[in-house]
Amino acid sequence: MSLTKLTDTVYVLQAPTNIGLIAAPDGQAVAIDSGIDDSIARKLLKEADKEGLQVKAIINTHSHADHIGGNHFIVGRTGAGVFTSALEAPYVEQPLYEPYTLTGGAYPWKELQNKFLLARASKVTEMLQPGEFSIHGLDLNIISLPGHSLGQIGVQADGVLFCGDSFISSNLLQKHGIPYNVNIHDYLETLDKLSKTNCNWYVPAHGTPSSNITEDLEVNRDKVLSLIQMVESLLSDPQEIDTLVSNICSALEVKAANTGIYYLYRTAVTAYLSYLYQLGRAKTEMDNNRLFWLTNKTG
């Protein structure tokens, strides 16, 4: 695992979750995300040192544990500032909110308090708005890319766009079963926005940097549209959400291998239900103290 140089000033550490590194003129550097744990963060600092760079800022594209898990280590070693969007900041500072949200607001039990869902906390230095952002002599462009999370951002520098989880490389998409998104409307709009950008390089959080993401965007869009159709079709018979998750997993031939993955799938499926509800194409009904989702035939 070593740094790949994309431009004179921009690097990527290709890992299970890719990390960006942008070199400033003064020898300091800005990391884009920090990986899932201390070991990845330690590797990033080691590789940066080989290039004569010191990480003095971290921009988190969003607050999921595999993107913020190295924050605490890097801040402790270098005093780096931490930057993210206003909607993601509370989760960076209070990471327990992530599994807490997945369980619907109940205290998460041990199975949901692992490094994949619960990072160590880090203090946010500044909350970023879309637009130009200057730091350590670098002129960056912050781009709003919501959908996968409520306040996800992308970071553009020197012709390179770090995209977070705004899309998954097409060769990896199938492995994700039910891709995790929390707002389907925003996710589709984000795909549209990316299709209109013009960058030399695009770096997804999961997958290989590419100079052309047209196919990736189309595959991600097709996946979302097919899931919308599948969910709506299944709602022709009233479904409780746990039954619906099971039916979708069976149709896709995927398995929720553990409690964490189950709750990620459950949240993702709920996002599709919310999307269809907002369009007037799905509704809820109560029956004997049980909540059912079904097609809204008048929608």
From TrEMBL:
PROSITE patterns named in the record: BETA_LACTAMASE_B_1 (PS00743)
The entry's localization annotation reads: Periplasm
Pfam (any one): Lactamase_B
* SMART domains in the record: Lactamase_B
The Metallo-beta-lactamase domain covers: 16-206
A single GO molecular function term of this UniProt record? zinc ion binding
Q: Which UniProt keywords apply?
A: Antibiotic resistance, Hydrolase, Metal-binding, Periplasm, Signal, Zinc
What InterPro entries does the annotation carry? Answer: Beta-lactamase_class-B_CS, Metallo-B-lactamas, NDM-1-like, RibonucZ/Hydroxyglut_hydro
Which cofactor does this sequence's record say it needs?
Zn(2+)
Please provide the Gene Ontology terms (biological process) for this protein: antibiotic catabolic process; response to antibiotic
Q: What is catalyzed by this enzyme?
A: a beta-lactam + H2O = a substituted beta-amino acid
Presence of keyword Protein transport? no
Chief subcellular site? periplasm
Q: What is its EC number?
A: 3.5.2.6
Q: Does the keyword Iron apply?
A: no
Which SUPFAM superfamilies does this UniProt record tie to the protein? Metallo-hydrolase/oxidoreductase (SSF56281)
For this record, the Gene Ontology CC terms, alphabetical, are: periplasmic space
Q: Which family does it belong to?
A: Belongs to the metallo-beta-lactamase superfamily. Class-B beta-lactamase family.
Task: Give the protein name, as stated in the record.
Answer: beta-lactamase
